[in-house]
Write a structure and sequence with these properties.
Blueprint (H helix, E strand, L loop, with lengths): L2 E6 L4 H14 L4 E4 L2 H13 L8 E3 L10 E4 L10 E4 L13 E5 L4 H16 L4 E5 L3
Parallel strand pairs: 1-6, 1-7, 2-4, 2-5, 3-4, 5-6
Helix pairs in contact: 1-2
Length: 138
């Protein structure tokens, strides 16, 4: 069964997600980051600039090198080459999340992110998943 971790009260969810992806990369773990196209572009840009001393190799799922790239950015999971860690930055429950060993849900402080995060939390809970909660700044 997929392990599901909720990271809440994170402030800037994209910046926090950059740190999570960096941590996964440094641990040698492959990750897929899922989001809507516009949010994915913003995350892609932030991965290049969030830390002047770190480089996190990443590309879009459509890239021919995606299977060899540690971090893959995807607007849907049809082309996801890895099934270890899925980091969801989207508003909806990923349709194919159960293919992954681990799902990271990042919930920022914006009202729309909080509402969508609560909906996703209820969805997983109601289906019997054990949910791990990591509240930042608490």
């Amino acid at each position: 069964m997929t392990r599901i971790d909720f990271h809440t009260n994170v402030g800037d969810s994209l910046l926090y997600a950059c740190r999570l992806v960096r941590k996964a990369y440094q641990a040698g773990t492959q990750a897929v980051v899922l989001a809507e196209p516009q949010r994915l572009r913003a995350f892609d840009e932030m991965l290049w600039t969030f830390s002047p001393l770190d480089f996190v190799p990443h590309c879009m799922a459509e890239n021919t090198n995606a299977a060899q790239t540690p971090v893959v950015l995807a607007a849907d999971l049809e082309r996801a080459p890895h099934h270890g860690v899925l980091l969801n930055l989207g508003a909806a429950v990923p349709q194919q999340f159960a293919r992954f060993e681990r799902l990271l849900e990042v919930v920022g402080n914006a009202p729309e992110e909080l509402a969508a995060g609560r909906d996703r939390y209820r969805f997983y809970r109601d289906r019997g998943y054990t949910l791990n909660n990591y509240r930042q700044g608490a």
